[in-house]
Amino acid sequence: EIVLTQSPGTLSLSPGERATLSCRASQSVTKTYLAWYQQRPGQAPRLLISDASNRATDVPDRFSGSGSGTDFTLTISRLEPEDFAVYFCQQYGTLPLTFGGGTKVEMK
Amino acid sequence: EAQVVESGGDLVFPGESLRLSCSVSGFPFSSYAVTWVRQAPGKGLEWVSSISASAITYYADSVKGRFTISRVNSMNTVFLQMNSLRLDDTAVYYCAKVSRLGFHYYSFDVWGKGTTVTVS
After folding, report:
1. Is B29 on the interface with A (CB under 8 A)?
2. How many other C-beta atoms are found inside a 10 Å radius of the C-beta of residue B75?
């Protein structure tokens, strides 16, 4: 099983600041089959990024993903108030599909 | 607009059974794989099971042998039959559509609001 470790657990930032979230895999992720999701309180997850760097439909361009192999990054260039949420990474290259434990981006 | 709606969640005793339903609309259901993902209270996301467009099924080890996923294309519905429920099956269960045509599993681009299963 590929274990995904997200860091930091919590990121305290102010609107307008840049957020950098990390997702590290215990083994190489097949073909950069890695996604990022945003989850606001009481809501379902929302797909942001597929294939490590491809933004999903209607996702603002302040969200960007990068990485390959075992190290992946989600960057939010300038935080908007609606971006304060929990973010999960997921790999879908190898069964079982696995998610990271999440990074909470909270308002400082 | 693509939509997914889950139903069937309930409060049950350990050892009992429950069947969840996932009704979809707004996309060619028979062409896409669908998955169930769960989230225990205050916890992260856990993949449960997936079913391809051709009805090939996949399960997490934690539910293998107890849960069965199926689909009825004429009803635009996926089911998750859950038997021998345990305390640690307590979670919100989300149904989600695979984002890429032709793949048995991938990222998930359309999610329902979830249905709550409580085993107590």
Report:
1. no
2. 12
Angstrom distances, CA of residue A44 to CA of A13, A87, B37, B48: 23, 12, 10, 16
Q: What is the pLDDT of residues B13-41, one digit of tens each?
A: 999 999 999 999 999 999 999 999 999 99
Relative to beta strand A86-91, strand A103-107 is antiparallel
- Of all residues in chain A, the one with the smallest CA distance to B112 is A44
Distance, C-alpha B119 to centroid of its chain: 17
Find residues 60-89 of chain A whose CB sits inside 8 Å of chain B: 88
Residues in chain A: 108
CB contact (8 A) between residue A101 and residue B113:
no
Note whether A66 and A52 are within 8 A (CB).
yes
Residues 6 or more apart in contact with residue A63 via CB below 8 angstroms: A36, A48, A49, A55, A74, A75, A76, A77
Are the C-beta atoms of residues B92 and B24 closer than 8 Å to each other?
Answer: no
pLDDT in tens, B38-74: 999 999 999 999 999 999 999 999 999 999 999 999 9
Q: Give me the residue label for tokens 């992260």.
A: B44
Euclidean distance between CA atoms A37 and A89, whole angstroms: 6
